[in-house]
């Protein structure tokens, strides 16, 4: 995917690290991806855990060989507890919220573990408002809150960007009728 930088009404340098923005539908839409801040992917967690198991097993086996058999049992118990904790971490490492704005439709998808919730709105009636430390998208027939994975100081910028995108999607923005194409300047990771 190539990114062309143009004067975009919603690309701000101060929020570039808070979320990723990319074009969708051949430049006819934009998508925000708000991710949980995790330092390791599930695959990396598995590699570290297997390394920990190998080192701990070697040490416990040496103690068992010298007659301290209880060390082997405690090492197994310890590795089981660490394995359960890292399994929970790995299940939620890919949690994210995706907001897609295209002409005539706004879609919000929230992934938490294996659960996926999707909501679709008509942008003509959609309201974007800050609400209790989150951003609320509401329209007749539904509402959803996004921004769980963002710092509080990034939420006003997200509200502003979403409002502009919703105006563009519903055809109410000044640049929507002029045929001016918009392109985001923030690259996704």
Which SSEs are present, and which pair or pack?
Layout: E1 20-24, E2 29-35, H1 42-65, H2 69-92, E3 96-102, E4 105-112, E5 115-121, E6 127-131, E7 134-139, E8 142-146, H3 155-170
Helix pairs in contact: 1-2
The helix content, as a percent range, equals 25-40%
How many whole angstroms does the radius of gyration measure?
23 Å
Helix and strand pattern: EEHHEEEEEEH
Q: Please, what is the oligomeric state?
A: single chain
Count of helical segments? 3
- Return residue spans where pLDDT drops below 50 for at least 5 consecutive residues: 1-16, 174-189
Strand content: 25-35%
- The chain-level mean pLDDT equals 80
**Would you tell me the structural class of the helices and strands?**
alpha+beta
Strand elements, count: 8
Shape: elongated
* Major sheet: 5 strands, antiparallel
Distance, first to last CA: 12 Å
Spatial ordering of strands, largest sheet = 1-2-3-4-5
List keywords for this structure.
single chain, 189 residues, alpha+beta, five-stranded antiparallel β-sheet, three-stranded antiparallel β-sheet, 3 helices, elongated, disordered N terminus, disordered C terminus
Can you characterise this structure?
Helix 1 runs antiparallel to helix 2. The strands form two sheets. The protein has a five-stranded antiparallel beta sheet, covered by helices on one side. Strands 6-7-8 form a three-stranded antiparallel beta sheet, covered by helices on one side. It is 34% helix and 26% strand. The protein is elongated, with a radius of gyration of 23 Å. It is α+β, with helices and mostly antiparallel strands.
């Amino acid at each position: 995917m190539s990114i062309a930088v143009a004067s975009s009404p919603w690309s701000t340098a101060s929020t570039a690290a808070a979320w990723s923005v990319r074009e969708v539908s051949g430049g006819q839409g934009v998508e925000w991806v708000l991710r949980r801040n995790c330092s390791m992917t599930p695959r990396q967690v598995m590699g570290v855990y297997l390394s920990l198991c190998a080192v701990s097993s070697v040490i416990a086996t040496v103690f068992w060989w010298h007659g301290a058999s209880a060390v082997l049992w405690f090492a197994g118990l310890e590795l089981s507890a660490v394995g359960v904790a890292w399994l929970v971490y790995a299940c939620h490492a890919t949690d994210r919220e995706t907001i897609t704005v295209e002409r005539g439709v706004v879609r919000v998808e929230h992934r938490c573990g294996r659960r996926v919730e999707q909501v679709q709105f008509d942008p003509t009636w959609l309201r974007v408002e800050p609400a209790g430390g989150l951003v609320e998208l509401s329209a007749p027939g539904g509402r959803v809150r996004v921004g769980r994975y963002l710092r509080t100081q990034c939420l006003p910028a997200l509200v502003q960007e979403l409002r502009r995108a919703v105006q563009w999607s519903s055809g109410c923005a000044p640049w929507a009728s002029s045929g001016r194409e918009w392109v985001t300047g923030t690259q996704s990771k």
